[in-house]
From TrEMBL:
EC number: 1.1.1.100
EC primary class: oxidoreductase
Species annotation: Buchnera aphidicola
Protein name: 3-oxoacyl-[acyl-carrier-protein] reductase
Biological process, per Gene Ontology: fatty acid biosynthetic process
């Protein structure tokens, strides 16, 4: 798929990995529709997009609103060629201390919402006979982690979803892949204390955290024509932490 004059929908584009992906795609001439849960986030998105797209308020926890919001985008004559399911949250606790909300919110935002976003774009991609769905998974979806039964269940669930969807649309010119980051410097890991930070660092063979640009590069590659024969895959970007 040629990426010129295409439109990408990126969830969670106001900061962190999502913002870096948006800026990377923008530089390649792709129009971006970015989401945030707040008006303030939308303002940030609109500022860096400089009219090469726009920001939309979207709360993935409100699954009913996802279809409606994406329908609105199509009504305004935007057709989504690249869907980047980036937004995600964590709420870490050992299972003995985890409450229903910790469990349900993480599953809803990190896994259930992907059904709604993907379903909302897939028909038009099938019609056009091209499209890209790229989801940000996590190393934890593949390894599991203490204190993250909710997060790892959601991220592991994405693996089956993406492999199955990749099979369903492989003959329609649509590829469905994931990027699985290791530890990346964003607000997502700001609650790590010095001890945890040091411990994590010692487990990374490259002895450094990844940057948001390194994840964005992987997403850009999977969006590009160079990745046209890759589907149902996970691109691991983790400094050697998991192979
Ligand atoms: N950073 C890492 O080390 C790391 C490692 C592995 C995987 N990941 C994955 O990478 C993705 C991005 O993480 P990040 O590091 O960039 O985190 P981040 O800086 O905390 O950003 C999270 C993004 O998700 C959005 N978001 C949160 N709750 C949402 C909701 N209910 N509905 C819609 N959007 C929501 C946020 O939007 P608002 O700010 O507007 O709420 C924000 O844009 C996530 O899927 C995460 O699981 C991150």
């Amino acid at each position: 798929m040629k990426t010129e004059k295409k439109t990408a929908l990126i969830t969670g584009a106001n900061k962190g990995i999502g913002k870096a992906i948006a800026i990377k795609l923008l530089k390649k001439g792709i129009r971006v529709i970015g989401t945030s849960t707040t008006q303030y986030g939308v303002k940030i998105i609109n500022k860096y997009l400089k009219k090469n797209g726009f920001g939309v308020v979207l709360d993935l926890k409100d699954t009913n609103s996802i279809t409606e919001k994406i329908k609105e985008i199509y009504k305004h004559n935007y057709s989504i060629d690249i869907l980047v399911n980036n937004a995600g949250i964590k709420s870490d606790k050992l299972l003995v201390h985890m409450n229903n909300t910790d469990w349900e919110d993480i599953i809803k935002i990190n896994l259930i919402s992907i059904f709604y976003t993907s379903k909302a774009v897939i028909r038009s991609m099938i019609k056009k006979k091209e499209g890209r769905i790229i989801t940000i998974n996590s190393i934890i979806g593949y390894t599991g982690n203490k204190g993250q039964t909710n997060y790892s269940a959601a991220k592991s669930g994405l693996i089956g979803f993406h492999k199955s969807l990749a099979l369903e649309v492989a003959s329609k010119g649509i590829t469905v892949n994931m990027v699985a980051p290791g530890l990346i410097q964003t607000d997502f890991i700001k609650d790590l204390n010095a001890f945890q930070y040091k411990k994590h660092l010692s487990n990374i063979p490259m002895k450094r955290l990844g940057s948001v640009e390194e994840i964005a590069d992987a997403v850009m590659f999977l969006s590009s024509n160079q990745a046209s024969y890759i589907t149902g895959q996970t691109l691991h970007v983790n400094g050697g932490m998991y192979m």
